[in-house]
Fold each of these.
Amino acid sequence: MQKLCFILFGIIITTGAIAADLCVRNDAMVVALNPMYNGTANGSDNVNKTWSTRFSYGVVSGISACATDCTTQGCVATNQNMNVYSTDRHCYCKMLRPALSRWVYVGYYYNNCATVCASNCASNVASALALRRGLFRSINTLD
């Protein structure tokens, strides 16, 4: 009886391992980005235009740019050629880690977009549901 239990246990364990090997690619990364959870601004650098936000499931980080495109918080910009050197009064965030997103609108800053955009990305990604939805949903729309 004891041998039978060990044999059945061994079959169950190896079947699961084989099934996992067949269904999961090597070096696959699975990250659950849930826009419903608020985070905490983890840091920003307005000179290098970088930002990061900490969530219970990990850190999300990216870059910021000041440009002109859509102007509703969380909307995905149609001009994806903007970069950290773009200049205007509208702030956009782009997530680089854990996945690459598109540029998403944060807000309008009359005089000082370039000096506050990265820090506003960090804080708004932490607190603004519309912005997180825009970032997380735009991951699968990259060309």
Amino acid sequence: MKTENNNIIFTVLNKKLIFTLGIIVFISLIGVILFFTVIRPEYIVLGLPFVFFVCVLPIFMIGMRNKIIYRFTIDELQYRGKNQYRIKWKDISSFNIDSTQITLHLKDNTSKILPVLNFNEKELNQALSIYIK
């Protein structure tokens, strides 16, 4: 559980992004090896901007971000998993957390089921208790 701009967020490691960045690093290593062995020195200067923008810049821009799964704002609960939900706090009457799922009971007598994933149940309970009275 983290706080960001007065919002409570729960994040997980973005495995797809890590895999993509691994491929970019591998391609950049091949490019560096080619620059120092095969390519003539005059062309190295022409290739440096390409290597920077394609291989290095994405690592700094998006490389270390975690994927946000739950965001608790002042007005709503946002779930950003497979079936994305945005639920206003005023529409939730109660909640229940067990080891695998969060059950939100809505005021229109329906319920939404959200996964707990690998988050700490106590932290989820504490964060939901702040907004759901």
